[in-house]
Amino acid sequence: MISFPISINEGARLLAEIEQRSGQRLSACYQCGRCTSTCVAAFAFDYPPHRLMRLLQVGMVREVLASKTAQLCLDCMTCSMRCPMKIDVAGVIETAKAVADEAGLQDTERNVRLFRRGFLNNVRRHGRLHEAGLLIWFNFKTNNPMNDVKLLPLVLRKKNFHIFPPRIKNRRQVRRLFREINGSGKQG
Amino acid sequence: MIGVFICQCGTNISATVDTGKVAQAAAAMRGVADAESIQYACSDPGQAAIAAAIRHKRLDRVVIGACSPRMHEATFRRALDRAGLNPFMLEMVNIREHCSWIHSDVDQATEKAAGLVRKGIARVRHHLPLSAGKTAAVRRALVVGGGIAGIQAALDIAAAGIPVTLVEKSPTIGGNMARLDKTFPTLDCSSCILTPLMVEVKQHENIELMVNSEVDDVHGHVGNFEVDIRRKATCVDEKKCSGCMICQEKCPAKAPDDFNAGMGQSKAISVASPQAVPLVASLRKEHCRRFSGGKCRVCQKLCPAGAVDYGQQDEVVRQSFGAVVAATGYGFYDWTGAYPTYGMGLYPDVITSLQYERLLSASGPTGGHIRRPSDGAEPRQVVFISCIGSRDESVGRPQCCSVGCMYIAKQAILTKEHIPDSQSYIFYIDMRAGGKNYEEFARRAQTRYGTLYIRGRVGKIFPRWGKLVVMGTDTLVGDQVEIEADLVVLATGLTASDGAGGLARKFNISCDENGFMAEGHPKLKPVEAEAAGVFLAGACQGPKDIPATVAQAGAAAAKVIGLLSRGELETSPMVAAVSQSKCSGCFKCRDVCPFGAIEDERPAAGRTAARVLASLCRGCGICSAACPPGVISLSGYTDKQLLAEVVAALR
Amino acid sequence: MPRETLKIVGFLCNWCSYAGADMAGMARMRQPDSLRIIRVPCSGRVDPLLVLKAFQEGADGVLVSGCHPGDCHYGNGNYFARRRLELLKRMLPVLGIDPGRFHYTWVSASEGARWARLVEEFTGQVERVQEAQPNLKIQSRIP
Amino acid sequence: MSVYSYFPGCSLSSGAMEFDKSFRLVAAAFDIGLDELTDWNCCGASPAPHHWGGDLGILLPARNLHIAGSSHDSMVAPCAGCFNRLKYAQHELAHNGELRRRTERVLREPVHYQTEVLNLVQLLNREIDPGDLAGRSQGRLAGIALGTYYGCVLVRPPEIVRYDDPNNPVKMEPLLKAAGATIPHFPFKTECCGSYMGLARKEIVLQASRRIIEVTLECGIDALVTVCPLCHQNLDLRQQQINDAFGTDYHLPVLYLTQAIGLALGFSPAELGIEAHLNADVGHWTLRNDDQ
Ligand SMILES: Cc1cc2nc3c(=O)[nH]c(=O)nc-3n(C[C@H](O)[C@H](O)[C@H](O)COP(=O)(O)OP(=O)(O)OC[C@H]3O[C@@H](n4cnc5c(N)ncnc54)[C@H](O)[C@@H]3O)c2cc1C
Ligand SMILES: Cc1cc2nc3c(=O)[nH]c(=O)nc-3n(C[C@H](O)[C@H](O)[C@H](O)COP(=O)(O)OP(=O)(O)OC[C@H]3O[C@@H](n4cnc5c(N)ncnc54)[C@H](O)[C@@H]3O)c2cc1C
Ligand code: SF4
Ligand code: SF4
Ligand code: SF4
Ligand code: SF4
Ligand code: SF4
Ligand code: SF4
Ligand code: SF4
Ligand code: SF4
Q1: Does D198 share its domain with D224?
Q2: Do B141-232+314-328+503-564 and B331-495 agree at the fold level?
Q3: Which of A31, B65, D35, D200 could join A115 in a cystine, given CB atoms 3.0 to 4.6 angstroms apart?
């Protein structure tokens, strides 16, 4: 939850960074709530989008960076399309997520982050996604072995579904690509 | 013989400018017969001193170094006039706002003041006596648009004994107010207060009412606008028709009901409403069977008055007017395209606020019983959504509709009065209730009538089990909310009315970015259009409610009366003029003139040259900067005057 | 060159910028004393020749200011001004005049502070140009 | 015959292989040449842009763009997600020199990024004449009400994908109408299905997708049509999970656009891979000459 006191100085700095990177006028938000009204995931957020915008306006950036919202937003951009002030709300959340990533500030929604990490590591290794492999890895990691396994027979009906990982030839190039992004390409 | 007077303005000027020294420096200049420093130039003794100097020293030009000309130029012009000198032989030099008040070093300020005065002296040498022209004004006013604004303006002007022509494009006057049920903040019945005024218009000896009519073409200018008015063919002889509505009853061709905002059905031939003024039928050819190739002649056969005439033609009449009031009102934002998530108009039970007014109205299609369009059921859960197409930059409409908050409160109250066990919900962003007794009224909707105000904008509306789900947010709670509604009413924004733009162009009325007609000054000239002799009344100038509309209409009428009661008009002499013998006839000037003040003329055979219509010219001087040979010049701001000023400024 | 001896001519429209300068005066906002203001009804009245004439007569800088776009008292005079003056600005180097000596802008009747700032900034700008290019001479004859 | 570089992406080569299958059938039927990219890699799908400042979400598709651009002027990415990522990458590469340099460091050669990227709807609209389609239609879709479900990534952000109205897209309609279907009003055509949260935050997907199905049925729609494998997964594959979670009993078929068109052309549900769906029940949609 919101913690007090708020460090305005630090808030201001991070806020400026979010404004600059997202290119959005946060001050234009007049709290109409239309973004929240359209969001399909808001029920799972800790701060619905309009609230998140307000937190940013008053400089409570830490709360935003560490929020579930930043991790759970689907980037579907529905909110951005509906905002009467033409603010790219999804872009703001996206930026917050990136800033949080870089600052190592996220400590919530472990599973979601784990999934994303697993997904990308999977791609890093094979060049393509190996769906079954990801599922098994994720279930193992989250200690929830039965998650979605009921779906497997259904998927297996699709005959040439890969049980073994598909692999591209030039995997070295893909790994180079990951290294280019973050040096090691391992952490997420 | 130039006289120079340097004002001290008490210490306002003299504290930083040595006015004596400035006067001395001026005295040394060519043509200066008298130069003195005065304590308060604008005071009675100050003006007397100037007048005395004019008389005794036979001055023919005067330079006054004092405050901004925007402050006292008119004062001193009158002083010159009283002293027997042409008032335009004055040049004011601003040594206060542009000098003493912005500098602190006395020497520097004094030197600058002397320089400014030198500039003024150089300029005044080229002044010419000018006299304000007079033109006779036609003592008749045109009012365009017959809503409450036009009605009120026409009645007020007519009451002063000035004849009025009221032109309304639809078949009846009354405008949007005639379609409202009750009105905030007093809840008096709209027709009850409007209908008597409509009837009075019809009966007034000084008012000529033309419905189904529009302005076709405009020539001339303030004092004498020549206007072509097109009276559109309605296939009904207005003089014969008694409004018995037999034709309407029997006509087999259905047509949309414009008066009821599309709720309910009308016929191809119809009387707009039972309260219509004038109470006559009109036929809409686009819906009539006869005009789409059929054989029907039912209305003609049955009309007891023999009023139906299928061969009627448009008629154009020309009238002259001294002044014009534009009162074209407002239209409605078409929300269906811009808000796809509200159903695009495909859900019958998502209606506009005006349609809801018709459902509430006893004279409406449901006889005043609220019945939702889809199945005629009485709604129990009614959701109102504010700011549709208002305060929404994503659809390009940033402005506030200014009446939505209030009429929603009203409609919520009326809903409860009609259906006591109903519940109204209002999605709003901010409650705007600035008028007298408005806040109290809106509060009552909440406290006495149990309306639930929800602060937030709605995201989507979709169907579920015969109801409409309204997905919104309560931003005060901080979460999404969902309401199952029987009926949803959208407070659609007010736009400029359809015909406003065309009319504005004809009368040189400028429009703002939202299409509303622009007033001369937002505070000081709220009813004057930029074009002389044209006034604005009501919602054509911007969204407003009935009290503000009526107030503005009264003000516009007062301006018209003031203008036309004098019989003749004074025109500014600071206008452009063409030296026709040197004019090349390129008409660059005409292209740039914002007021259409330049026309072509044939001063000699085979030659065309420009001519300025002094009565239209507003003295902007844009033409003279555009003229390649430099032969169109603006009095008061001629090339000579400005060049002299430039040269003197740099000495 | 000290700024006291700079000579700058300003053409100001009566309705907005002149009133804005008045406003700055009413608020007693100190400004450099180099500016001589010439009042015109509309920035659209400012013939580029007037600007050139000022340079020819030895002006160190010329400033033109009108109403904000959309606010013109005469509807669109300031658009005409903008078009002409933009052309003029591009022509100045041909005549050997540093375009830094010329500026046109919009100031409304309520923008006194903006006006004062503008005078300060433009004076500074002319000062800098003047240092770099002290002898301004226009050869071509202007009526 | 026009030949396009074809980027199937991970989904079409595994979980959504029936999309690939039906696409190839329809393409062949209309003489559209498809030339699969050699050695393509995953576009990063949804997770990539959400990581490492988003640059991974550019570089991964950039490699594919480069492969396609080296041999073809136009490429098609039937998966809405891949399409979106490719367009994004293309936009960023065009506007960001630094990213371009980084891409070239990885590729070790100048990057080709300007190849035209088409989504499936775009491609079919370009290559299929509605009159031709109507003429060849076997009537299986006659009287069938289809909901055009575009999802979010196909049309957003509009300034990047530059395709159709982002709030009310309509480009699938001419094709499906030509195929004989009716297209009722469907307000949720761009409603998000819950995206990639299926594993990690299942309730988001189940909730979002349930609403879509609910409104679909409310609108009298027989089946949804999509071009997004992720949407398909959430709406079809997880429909039983939805029923389990909410106590509903939905059996809404969800078809890929090419499956719907394929049905109209007379291909059997089996040929089109519809039988591999959870809700494969399109058997009662009869061909015109099935009656005899
Ligand atoms: C739903 C709703 C409820 C409202 N309720 C209230 C209320 O309770 N209380 C209140 O104070 N206000 C209310 N208002 C506001 C009120 O309607 C307006 O203030 C008022 O109608 C403005 O009157 P008007 O004469 O300026 O414009 P209008 O009523 O629009 O009249 C303009 C007239 O000009 C005619 N016209 C247009 N163009 C031309 C042309 N080119 N040539 C000739 N004729 C032309 C039109 O046909 C029309 O008859 C409400 C508004 C709405 C939308
Ligand atoms: C802080 C503030 C800021 C504002 N800012 C703005 C703004 O930015 N824009 C805007 O549009 N409006 C603004 N307003 C509103 C604006 O001040 C009023 O609209 C306007 O002044 C009203 O003018 P008035 O002539 O009706 O009343 P007043 O200005 O009150 O004038 C009434 C005069 O009548 C005299 N008087 C009173 N009783 C008698 C008597 N019995 N006999 C003789 N004389 C009498 C008084 O001495 C006074 O001189 C503002 C108001 C406030 C309080
Ligand atoms: S829709 Fe836009 S203006 Fe409204 S609350 Fe959300 S971000 Fe703010
Ligand atoms: S982009 Fe994120 S916040 Fe916006 S509507 Fe989609 S899920 Fe909600
Ligand atoms: S004329 Fe102007 S400067 Fe002189 S006293 Fe009057 S107000 Fe002051
Ligand atoms: S046209 Fe004839 S029938 Fe119709 S209302 Fe007039 S008088 Fe009656
Ligand atoms: S001719 Fe017939 S259809 Fe036409 S208006 Fe008269 S009655 Fe109606
Ligand atoms: S008046 Fe009320 S409803 Fe209308 S735009 Fe303004 S705030 Fe919205
Ligand atoms: S611009 Fe000058 S020359 Fe041309 S028509 Fe006008 S007055 Fe004559
Ligand atoms: S001064 Fe202005 S209004 Fe007068 S003729 Fe010239 S351009 Fe037209």
Answers
A1: yes
A2: yes
A3: D200
